[in-house]
Design a protein that fits this description.
The protein is α/β, with parallel strands linked by helices and 348 residues long. The chain has helices spanning 24-33, 51-61, 128-138, 159-169, 183-191, 208-215, 219-232, 246-258, 320-337, and strands at 11-16, 40-45, 64-71, 74-80, 97-101, 145-149, 172-176, 197-202, 237-243, 266-270, 292-295, 298-300, 312-314.
């Protein structure tokens, strides 16, 4: 388990020379007694050998080890006190959903992007030819939904061909910020099959203040215009919000009620402590029911961590059947050792 970011913690516990055999356990218990469920606790030690004992203790106590990093010759483990908050979602067969990260570059720099997309990010394009092969093989593997995301997929000049290939294999939803539908991109939008392609457009709050704080000045208005434009072209549109609190979720639900947005066209989820986020729900692999996710770098466990090493399943995409088998086998193996059910972190 590793991480490319330093995970902030509510409590920093320096173990010194202590191990589980020599006094570390009482210190851990004391740290939890002073905290609240959901708090993150960092344990720092010069002895990497305490790692397996710490992992076993976390499993036994239903705490979750989130990450590990080596800093200046010492190891820093971070675990979450208690189980992850359960997001609303359905149990789906592993492999019924397929996620494709077509690219990682974006016209926005959202401050909680789980894969660090921005105008400065490298494109790392999956590419039309690989998408075509994935789509063909997916039809033989029981894939019933394809989700296309990024970055911003409409940054790609061949996104129309990519979406057409996906839609030929399964009903396809493209995740977008909705801001680029003009000129040739509008023509691309109009060329897509309305009965096979839907849009999921990000809108984080009922008014611009919070949305613009996370995504940039003026982005709420441009996103709302994009929503109206895509609807006017006859496409199904789902509205997706990333929120920090239950109160924000309720506020957005009320906004959607006023605008007669049906339940199946709402996606409200918590911000995940991944990518560029500095706060949110810290999620380990054990918290996530796998949804096969493919990027130019390989196959990942779930779209919320599609560039993080702890969620990498394989560098090899093809044959796709092998990638699916690897994910299912890993899920079955890890499920045997979990003392609780994995949670769905609902992305769509």
């Amino acid at each position: 388990m590793g991480s490319s970011m330093r995970i902030p913690a509510n409590v920093e516990l320096d173990a010194g020379t202590k191990t589980f055999a020599s006094g570390l356990l009482p210190d851990l218990i004391a740290a939890l007694r002073g905290g609240r469920k959901g708090d993150l606790v960092a344990v720092i030690s010069g002895d990497p050998g305490i790692g397996p004992d710490l992992e076993a203790w976390c499993r036994f106590t239903r705490n979750t080890l989130i990450g590990r990093a080596v800093e200046e010759g010492r190891t820093r483990w971070v675990f979450r006190y208690g189980e992850a908050a359960e997001d609303v979602g359905e149990n789906r067969p592993v492999g019924s959903r397929l996620w494709l990260y077509t690219n990682f570059d974006c016209n926005l720099s959202c401050d909680y992007c789980c894969v660090r997309s921005s105008p400065k990010a490298r494109r790392r394009a999956l590419g039309l030819e690989r998408v075509r092969r994935i789509a063909i093989e997916a039809t033989q593997l029981g894939v019933s939904e394809i989700f296309v995301t990024g970055g911003e997929p409409f940054m790609l000049p061949d996104i129309g061909e990519i979406l057409a290939a996906c839609a030929a294999a399964a009903p396809t939803t493209v995740l977008t910020n909705g801001m680029l539908f003009a000129g040739s991109r509008l023509e691309t939008l109009r060329s897509l099959p309305r009965e096979r392609v839907a849009f999921q457009i990000s809108l984080d709050s009922p008014t611009p203040e919070r949305h613009d704080r996370h995504r940039g000045k003026g982005t709420w208005a441009r996103a709302w215009n994009g929503i109206q434009r895509v609807r006017a072209e006859g496409f199904r549109v789902r509205l997706a919000a990333a929120v920090s609190t239950d109160a924000e979720a309720r506020e957005f639900q009320s906004f959607l009620d006023v605008h007669d947005v049906s339940e199946e066209n709402r996606v409200i989820r918590r911000i995940a402590l991944r990518g560029t986020a500095t706060e949110g729900i810290a999620l380990a692999r054990a918290d996530l029911v796998p949804e096969v996710t493919i990027t130019a770098e390989g196959v990942f466990w779930h779209p919320v961590g599609a560039e993080d090493s702890d969620l990498l399943v394989s560098r090899d995409i093809f044959p796709l059947a092998q990638s699916f088998a690897d994910v299912r086998r890993a899920f079955d193996r890890e499920s045997e050792h979990q003392r609780r059910l994995a949670r769905i972190f609902n992305c769509a």
